[in-house]
# Entry
Amino acid sequence: MSISFTRRAKASRVAMLLAPVVAFCCAIVASVILFTALGKSPGQALYSLLLEPFLSWYNFSEVLLKMAPLLLIAQGLAIGFRANVFNIGAEGQLIIGAIAASALPVWYPMGDSAWMLPAMLVMGAGAGMAWAGIAALFRTRFNANEILVTLMLSLIAAQVLNYLLLGPWKDPNGFNFPQSVMFPDAALLPILLPGTRVNVSLLLALIASVLAYVLMRHRFSGFQLLVGGLAPRAARYAGFSETRAIWMSLLLGGLAAGLAGASEVAGPLGQLQRSVSTGYGYSAIIVAYLGGLNPLGIVISAFVMSVIYIGGDNAMVSADLPVAAVWVFQGLLLCFYLAGLTFIRHKVTWIRRKVAP
Amino acid sequence: MTALLSLQGVSKRYGAVKANSGIDLVVDPGSIHAILGENGAGKSTLMKLIYGVESPDAGSILWKGQPVTLASPADARRLGIGMVFQHFSLFETLSVVQNIALIVPGRQADLARRIRALGAEFGLEVDPEAMVHALSVGERQRVEIIRCLLLEPELLILDEPTSVLPPQSVARLFDTLRALQARGMAILFISHKLEEIKELCDTATILRGGQVTGRVTPRDHSAKDLATLMIGRAMPPPLPATPQAQGEVRLELSGLDYINDDPFGVSLRDVSLRLHSGEIVGIAGISGNGQQELAALISGEVMRPGDAIRMMGRAVGGLDAAHRRRLGFAFVPEERLGRGAVPDMSLADNALLTAHSAGLVQRGFIRRGPERAYTAAIIAAYDVRTPGPEAEAAALSGGNLQKFIMGREMMLAPKLLLASQPTWGVDIGAATDIRQRLVAMRNEGAAILVISEELEELFQICDRLHVLHKGHLSPSLQTAATSVEQVGSYMIGAGA
# Structure
């Protein structure tokens, strides 16, 4: 007895759209089993995880707040993923973007120029691009695998952050906490929804989604990226430059992640702290894939993922779940989705061995 | 006499395509039985069913009168069925005897002795200790045949065995097959070459569109009759050959050397040719003698700075494929899916792949209207059978996709066209159409380089020919003043 996977000529469209939903349901079932095994009440856990985020305006606004960086980063990453350029180090690009954006308010803590905030965002985006650009340079010059380089650059970025917060950029009046000074008002993003912490970065993320859609659907350069991802030999045949695709993918991913980092320090944090790195860069990878690498799908998956984030925080308090439970749920979601995709793209047949007479 | 193998009403479908429907076939012991049909007629599917690679949806297979289920090639081999595929399955880094020992049980010393004995008996001489990568295509085929024979089959299946052989080796293969027949072995010989079948085979089963359209004794019928059974209508008329005044040099290779990084690839040595506007030049030769390398160097998929390659009077060694296209170059590659077309993209997007310069992109934005119109024009003009521009390239049959790619490149009205295996896998009617269009393009002043394995095709449309053998290009031969034999001797490296 053996199993064989044969690629289907054409994957069903309905199945493609259903896959994330089915994966979501499977993840719920699996986590119920898991929570029960942990001795927690699965009903209470699911209630906190999936419903509570919708039950108060405050909770819901927190979902939108989380959604902004996830959405922004995922849109940037998805472009590269579709071109088969795997930027796994958005977390590092986010950190470097946050650091670069923090330079201005750290150096001018009393600054009140109207240009401060735009300059911070530009510096954050630029620094994210530059950090990702290192991986692009290594890949195009030395053929170094961008998965490894971006991942390792993230570790370096985390150490740079530690160095700055424990040394030169530490707030002198901060009771020795590893964090920078509080930013002046001129360095903070305007609030989008009054009475909440939701700022204009959500708007930026939605604009980025529209731009990503236009790029991948209507621009010839986006088409060239897609061809490079789907059929590299066809791209070479048509003369689409692979070098260009690598640079473009990594720079756009770095730009989005750097901007997200800048928006974090200029948004909910209001200063540079270690908690700027909470794994958005990694969760955005899941968001990008759950959204089918489609700019519209990613808007939905970013929202769902934010719900899980906020719900997870709630569940820690009300259902006494460990902090890892949210990560496990995210991981389950991705596993089930990828498994689902395999079944959609391939036909599975059980072959029973029969011996010929 | 009980038939060795008989198929009764065997059917196999792939999705909506009926590859085989209701096939009846009877193979007698000791006969050479031809399966004749065009590409896509269902020959390969039928062989896969007989060799246990696929299972039929309906019908039954009888071996010596007993119904059998063939779940795998191992089952087929156990019964006594051997098969030599069109594409060889040998490990290049192993020696002949090592390759054979992977399938045939026994000590290598014994096997080597048996290989030599079989070689002497059936004209299949090959050195058992030789490394496979050092062997010619003909020798590799002998290794494949020997490997089958060592398992002492009663039925040997050969899939298009002559397509990879130069003319001289074909005669030798036929002697071998006749010797095997004399020993009582039955042979299933798959081909679309009518003359070969008339020469070699006792019986022929003709397939068209997955169905049997005839069972004949080939010697009693003319090639024309067989062709009519095979393609369902009379053979298309030959092309009008009008000599043409030559214009400027559009492609010039002067002393092109190319060292292949791949140890089993082919390196090119001192390749020189000139191609003028208003002429078609053919590159003959058996695949694997440097055709792929030459095509990639001309197309710009492989770049080697220098001025050994000149296009429209410019040295293009350092220019990529897109730059060369801007000079007026177009290219139809040998592989359609994954190189000439993106399998998962629509035909419209596949038109955009290389025809973007035909007004399909404005200021970096894709113009969907013109893209669709251009695609529809290709589909209509080149008779591409497809639901429409939205169909995915992977959903088209090989022949239809080839027509589409050919159309896309030809509609760009290039100054210089490189076409690799332009009619490979295309039915005879469409192949004639493509050839006529190539000739028409030449008459309008295009320079065309055709790389093809089909000598007949090259003789039909080319003004001049070169032969590529082991990375070395023969001198230019005027088609009208040369013979198939002369080209054949260049193909095996014997020279003029």
User: Anything to note?
Assistant: Chain B has a mean pLDDT of 86. Residues 6 and 26 of chain B are 4 Å apart (CA to CA). Residues 5-231 of chain B form a domain with the Rossmann fold fold (CATH 3.40.50.300).
